[in-house]
Every structure is written in C-alpha cells, then in structure tokens.
C-alpha cells in the first residue's frame, strides 16, 4: 500500500507541475509573438494630397543660406551649381523615391570665426520656418534604413551623385519637404551634421 500511495503522490505532483507551467509557457509565447511584430510604415505618396501654395517662391533655388552661413563659402547660390536637368533621390516616410528636374545641390558651411560652429538645430529651424512660410510640408522625418539605402545602391546614390544628401552614416538625419504651386513642385532635402556642415538639395519640377 505504501508503494501504491507513493506512486499516486508522485503522479499527482507531476500533473500539478504541468498544470502550473503550461500557462506560463503560453504567456511567454504570446508575448514573443507580439514583440516580434513590426508595424509597416505607410510609404505611399500622393502629390495631389498636398495643398497648392499661393506664395511667391521667388527665383530658383528659392532659399538663401541662413545668416552667417554660406553655400560653399558663397552668400548666394552660384549659377554654376545649378543644373537644368538632374536626378536626386528624395525620402518620403523612409522610402527613397527618384525625382528629376532642375537641381541645386550644395554644402552648407559656416566660416570658422572665433568659437562659432555649425549649429544643426539653428540651420534646421531656419529652413523649416522658411519652407513652411512658403506653404511647404514635411514629407520625411524618419530614419532611412540600411536596407532601403542598399536597395537603391551605392553606384546610383554616390557614384552617379543622385543621393547628395544621403550619407550612409547619417540616414537618421534626412529631412525632406515639398512645396506645390499651380505651376511647379519643389523638393527640398536636408542633411545636417552638428558642429561640422550640412547639405541641401533643391529640385524643381514644372507641372501643367
């Protein structure tokens, strides 16, 4: 009888352990499934959804450098840096989209005078205020993934210079804007490195 009682006791203990551990395992599996789900970003872009601005944009490339800054050490855009037709990859919600049109691609510099250094926050605010005042909207403020960068490729972006604002080490700093008027679409893309320099690309497409 003692042996039978001992066997029954062990069987009950094993059954109890199984009942206790099963819910814990199921909970862990459920958590694992939830934490590995990655939201899919909406990368669709519809130019028709952007409101038409009635502002006078002025002369291409429309934006002068901020005060105390310059375009390759020039206070104004040099006509030599403007191409009638060129291509640049613009970021929209983390997706790189090729655009063609009249382009201006240049470094933004701050001449070293005393302790004044390139201030990325200051430059970003300057351009954003200007762009928004002209009726522009921001279309990218998220990091470009390495996979998306590699999808287009170094040859296209670097060798062919169609990604002048897309440094593979600074893909979390890409800010892109669009201004739409009744006769043109203007893309502006910025990449700014604090205390160093920055880069801007302006691309104009005629419409209508």
Structural notes for this entry:
The longest helix has 35 residues, at 2-36. This protein has 2 domains: 1-37; 47-206, no CATH class. Strand 2 and strand 3 (95-109) form a beta hairpin. The chain contains 4 helices and 7 strands. By secondary structure, the protein is an alpha+beta fold. Strands 1, 2, 3, 4, 5, 6 and 7 form a 7-stranded antiparallel beta sheet that branches. It comes from Mucilaginibacter pedocola. This is Lipoprotein. Residues 1-18 form the signal peptide. Keywords: Signal.
Main sheet characteristics: 7 strands, antiparallel
Computed Rg: 28 Å
| Mean pLDDT level | 83
SS-derived structural category: alpha+beta
What would you call the quaternary organization? Answer: single chain
Name the helicity range: 25-40%
How many H/I helices? 4
Q: What are the SSEs and their pairings?
A:
Blueprint: H1 2-36, E1 70-71, E2 82-92, E3 95-109, H2 120-133, E4 137-140, H3 146-152, H4 154-159, E5 174-180, E6 184-193, E7 197-206
Protein name: Lipoprotein
Keywords: Signal
Organism: Mucilaginibacter pedocola
Sum up the structure in keywords.
disordered N terminus; alpha+beta; 208 residues; 4 helices; seven-stranded antiparallel sheet; 7 strands; Lipoprotein; signal
Summary of the model, kept short:
The protein has about 210 residues and is α+β, with helices and mostly antiparallel strands. The chain has helices at about 1-35, 120-135, 145-150, 155-160; strands spanning about 70, 80-90, 95-110, 135-140, 175-180, 185-195, 195-205. The protein folds into 2 domains: about 1-35; about 45-205, no CATH class.
